[in-house]
Description:
With about 100 residues, the chain is mainly alpha-helical. It has helices at about 1-20, 25-55, 55-90, 95-99. It has a domain at about 25-90: Methane Monooxygenase Hydroxylase, Chain G, domain 1, CATH 1.20.58. About 90% of the residues lie in helices and about 0% in strands.
Amino acid sequence: MHGHHSLEDVALFPAVGRHDPSLDSVVDRLERDHLHISGFLDAISSIATALGTDDTDQLRADLATALHSLASHLLEHLRYKEESLGPLLQTMTFANLTR
């Protein structure tokens, strides 16, 4: 997911901004979402690594909480992206990304 979001941050979102500057606030929110989601992913990775050496009920509970938080934020992120950028993305081509 880090790679997917990095690609959006460096290629897709700048292209969206060039194509329709009125969407700058949408792009800003999506980029902030990426930072929050990255934090959840990093926490999940850290907890999963700890579980490899110290399998405790608390770590399992922490992992479940982190996964639930990721799911909640990710689904909201995807909903917002689809609603806000979906119509534009259906009309964009690869050529739009490289201009």
